[in-house]
Amino acid sequence: MSSSANQARKEAIRDNVMRPSRVVPYPSKDGKPIYTSEFFGESVFGLAQIAKALPKPAYAQFLRQMRGGRALDKGTADAIAHAVRIWAMDKGATHFTHWFQPQTGTTAEKHDAFLTLKTTHGPHGVEETKAIDAFSGSQLLQAEPDASSFPSGGMRTTFEARGYTVWDTTSPMFVQQGPHKTCVLYIPSVFISYNGDALDEKTVLLRSTQQVAKAALAVLALLEPVPQGAPPITSVVYTTLGTEQEYFLVDRALYVLRPDLKITGRVLVGALPAKHQQMEDHYFGHIPSRVLATMSEAELELYKLGVPVKTRHNEVAPQQFELAPIFEETSLAVDHNLLTMDVLSKVAHRNNLKVLYHEKPFKGVNGSGKHCNWSLSTGSGDNLLDPTIKPETNFRFLFFLLATLDAVQKHGSLLRAGIASASNEHRLGANEAPPAIISVFLGEHLTEVLNSIEESRPIKNFSMPNIQSIKLGGTALDVMVSTLPEISRDLTDRNRTSPFAFTGNKFEFRAVGSKQSPSFPMTLLNAAVASSLQDMAEALRTASGDKAFPSDADKFKVIRQYIASTKNVRFEGDGYSDDWRQEAARRGLPNITNCPDAFDQIIEKKNSAMLCKLGIFSESELQSRHYILMERYSKDLLLEANTLRTILAQQVLPAAYEYRAALASSCAQQKAIGVGSNCPELTTLNLTTPLVESLLVWIEKLDEAINHVHNASDDPSKEARASAKYLLPAMEGAREVADELETIIADKYFPLPKMSEILWF
């Protein structure tokens, strides 16, 4: 058995080397490539297409509905449905689907055909039945999937199956390629239960964006008062998001020979190869040709889908890469991130590659994150987290900066819950990812700005200020090469060890996992900031007393109050160090090191009260989320434990037995022909004996750990804690022995592709 498995492994490696890259033609006209901007969004049915399809009054009504001003009437819905059907069918669409985000970490879709039957009835019954293509406004607005078949945390049972998907008008419809040159029309949607409870990730995200916008407008109205009866200076605020998506690409032929990669997304056994990332030569290195072909093909599809992908590069670990877009409104950015992951997976498959989004697919090399760059913007495009030239007098910036600091100070444990998962647990706190302690990095200059305001003193001059186009007192750097121009230095350095860092005009939430949807962590961040903005607005009203509008002195009073109260969450040093863990404990910052404890923060009184008060979650929705997260964590670990046990018993041990038999046979043959008394093979055989015996013991321990978890299965919380307590150490112990055996067993006996083969092609 092992010889055939080893042969399949060798053939996969050979085919990997010989396989040519796919060639996909770039869009062209008259034999010349066309600019990306000319075909960008050609597969999207957005506002421009709706405006062409609707009469001006109907289009105005649709815009009011999209902005929350009124319900969408049937006539307008029918007109949009008719227009989008014609547009989609002209592109080859045969089906449509409501595309939504259940609490599974991915998206869901059910395809329905435009085809229907129209029957003509006469006095003698049915006279004629013919096929027509149709799509009504009611079909556009909602559909009905089975709500009991998705995670609901007990909110839906098998006999309570009704649920609804509802078109999210703020996210444009689009078509994606299907089989046989056909297309499918995708309708971004929310997913709710029969009783209106949120069963998805998008509904709560949309609620949170509404709340943070409402709270931001209230603060701006106080900071920028206008005469009575005059329109406000700012009437629209929204959050923006840019997601840096990290991932691994591996050869698909090798991937299919690894049951652990196929089932769990990560390698459960495998010794670290001699060369991994220690040479520091992969980051920003030359992109391998097959990978670049895959990236380029994915980008072509994403551009047509209106996804503004901007950056591609090698990451730190071998076969690790990154794709990053331009910032967009948060809900749309989440849709586009999930679409990016889907498109990249499909394109990789066509190129005989496999995308791994798991946060830690390979032990010993860097894992993958999804850095979420978050900010707030006005309807006119002003970034509320832009410090400008003089941040010390920019009340807008100071209030929104401090509201974010206050949000992390008060609800850091909640943000920690938003990034917790069985897969991200392997990454957080390692030397390629932020620690589990949620703190904020501002940088030396901004820290000095806040300190100077608190102490009522002038700001320290860091160096000569550069030209006005350099923001926030940016400084010039002289690289001492006469042929090179003077370059501008950013306000802050980059602290890669910070989970939540200010990076010039936005916050980078670096602790989010690569596999997870950014929706849930962004929902919690929006909620926490909205709550802090409400508190700051109330503090400003109190400070202003009976005055019609707050004075500058009132504003500075509140600013100083929040500078002082948020000092503990600000940290400029090395987040990986033991000193920081001790210092964080002294500051009272939570260090939540395991998932079950992190999940409990969702229903912790302070956090749950804030989320329910804002109307982002109901109490039952929070309990449901808590249940689902605990249950998913246990299922993930049980899946890994059972897969590992199978690999050890059916592949690693048989390989060891076969190798030991060959060694013993060689020794016996040498003894039979009188080749000395010292058989070299005997030394290796003796090395394997205690390892094989130890591995058998660890398999028994794995069985015991799995039974412990099953015995707690009546309570998801107890089951999750049992999984963390028993499964994790048993899997780690078994892996250590198996990895050591791998380094001893002769290559031809080992059935699994090794990390050295997977990570280098």
UniProtKB/TrEMBL annotation:
SMART domains the record matches: Gln-synt_C (SM01230)
Segments forming domain GS catalytic: 201-652
Entries under PROSITE patterns matching the protein: GLNA_ATP (PS00181), GS_BETA_GRASP (PS51986), GS_CATALYTIC (PS51987)
Molecular-function GO term, any one: glutamine synthetase activity
Pfam families: Gln-synt_C, Gln-synt_C-ter, GSIII_N
Secretion signal, residue range per the UniProt entry: none
Domain GS beta-grasp: 94-196
Domain of life: Eukaryota
InterPro entries the UniProt entry points to: Gln-synt_C, Gln_synt_N, Gln_synth/guanido_kin_cat_dom, Gln_synth_cat_dom, Gln_synth_gly_rich_site, GS_Type-3, GSIII_N
A Gene Ontology biological process term: glutamine biosynthetic process
Family: Belongs to the glutamine synthetase family.
Protein name in UniProt: Glutamine synthetase
Organism listed in the record: Entomortierella parvispora
Lineage of the species this protein comes from: Eukaryota, Fungi, Fungi incertae sedis, Mucoromycota, Mortierellomycotina
